[in-house]
Specification:
The chain is α+β, with helices and mostly antiparallel strands and 208 residues long. Helix content is 48%, strand content 19%. Residues 1-26 have low confidence and may be disordered.
């Protein structure tokens, strides 16, 4: 059901009153943020244990993704019909589903000889959009390229967080919301049915 749907800890700066003034940090570079993520992915996919690999993907998901905002967007109008405990369960299931699904997909990309390369970035009112390609190691530069756009939100401390991934023109967040609405409509918009489908889809994703 939620087959392609889609990865939060903010950095905290502490300064004592009597501490000497520190030089201002350089303005963060959104392209460098995605390049660093790509380097980390290349390390994670080399982990042989699926359980350990998923644990590392979960760490990256929490470190680099705006998890609450992404979950709220996908949940959309159903936040009004789910109780707070049901919303919390949904967000936990959503995280598990994304970690399982995208750890498998990105492992296939990177382990199969595909290297991510940033091809452009631009700032917008919410943060930035970084465009990249997963390029196969052989052939022309654009041979078999997989276009991935990373939508970044900017935190109050200036750090970037991933709020959406657009693969081949398909938004992870928008597609997740659309598929969730389909699940709800087929099940009479009953919260229990929505959560039951999410539980099963999460189990299926982890077994792939």
């Amino acid at each position: 059901m939620l087959r392609r749907s889609l990865f939060s800890a903010a950095a905290i700066l502490l300064a004592g009153v009597s501490a000497p003034a520190l030089p201002a940090a350089a303005d963060p570079d959104p392209a460098a943020f995605i390049n660093d993520l790509g380097s980390q992915l290349q390390i994670v996919v080399m982990i042989s244990s699926p359980e350990q690999r998923r644990a590392e993907f979960r760490r990256l998901f929490h470190d680099d993704f705006d998890v609450p905002a992404l979950g709220r967007f996908v949940l959309g109008r159903f936040a009004r019909i789910l109780t707070l405990p049901q919303q919390q369960e949904f967000l936990a299931l959503f995280e598990n589903y994304v970690v399982a699904t995208y750890s498998s997909r990105l492992t296939e990309y990177v382990a199969g000889g595909v290297v991510p390369r940033v091809i452009g970035s631009r700032l917008d009112q919410d943060g930035a959009i970084v465009s990249s390609e997963f390029i196969r190691g052989k052939g022309p530069a654009n041979s078999g390229a997989i276009r991935v756009d990373w939508r970044l939100s900017r935190e109050r401390d200036g750090a970037y967080r991933i709020s959406d991934i657009v693969i081949g023109g398909l938004s992870m967040a928008a597609n997740g919301r659309t598929e969730l609405e389909g699940v709800a409509e087929r099940n009479g918009e009953q919260p229990a049915a929505i959560l039951a489908v999410m539980r099963q889809e999460t189990v299926n994703a982890m077994l792939r």
